[in-house]
Design goal:
This protein is mainly α and 148 residues long. It has helices at 7-10, 13-35, 37-45, 54-74, 81-101, 108-117, 122-140.
């Protein structure tokens, strides 16, 4: 038995909501990192070391990803690849942060940062990417077209 495929069954509103939550989360996190790099760096490394200048760029990259998540939420069929890109940036960003910023010395706050800001999002973005790709294919096949 074939079930009816609608835009809502392929790419439901809760997925859009999750992408919008990721957008808001990245905006807030990007502002924190970009405007208060010293606070962020000293908190996550649990040290009083000088802040590397790359941290400010990290904040800008986080803000840019907010725009990518928003675009995918609004037009999943057109920007389906941005969810996969988000998963890739979370994976790469976490590895980079662990080796370059934390220098493989992770305290409780560093673990929290790596889990909550990178690892936890990866499976969601991969799942969303596949759903957005299915949405794109269904749209191309004209499944959503209604004929009078």
């Amino acid at each position: 038995m074939n079930s009816l495929q609608t835009p809502q069954t392929i790419f439901p509103n809760w997925i859009r909501g999750l992408l919008l939550a990721a957008t808001a989360y990245n905006i807030l996190w990007g502002i924190l990192i970009g405007w208060f790099p010293e606070t962020f760096y000293q908190w996550v490394t649990e040290s009083k070391n000088a802040v590397p200048s790359i941290i400010e760029w990290q904040g800008k990259a986080v803000l840019a990803m907010a725009a990518a998540y928003l675009a995918c939420a609004i037009h999943p069929g057109k920007f389906w690849y941005l969810a996969f890109f988000g998963a890739l940036t979370k994976l790469g960003g976490g590895i980079w942060f662990y080796y370059i910023i934390l220098e493989q010395e992770v305290g409780k706050k560093g673990i929290f940062h790596l889990l909550m800001n990178d690892a936890i999002w990866i499976p969601f973005f991969v799942f969303i990417g596949f759903r957005a790709l299915a949405y794109k294919k269904a749209k191309q096949e004209g499944i959503f077209d209604t004929e009078p």
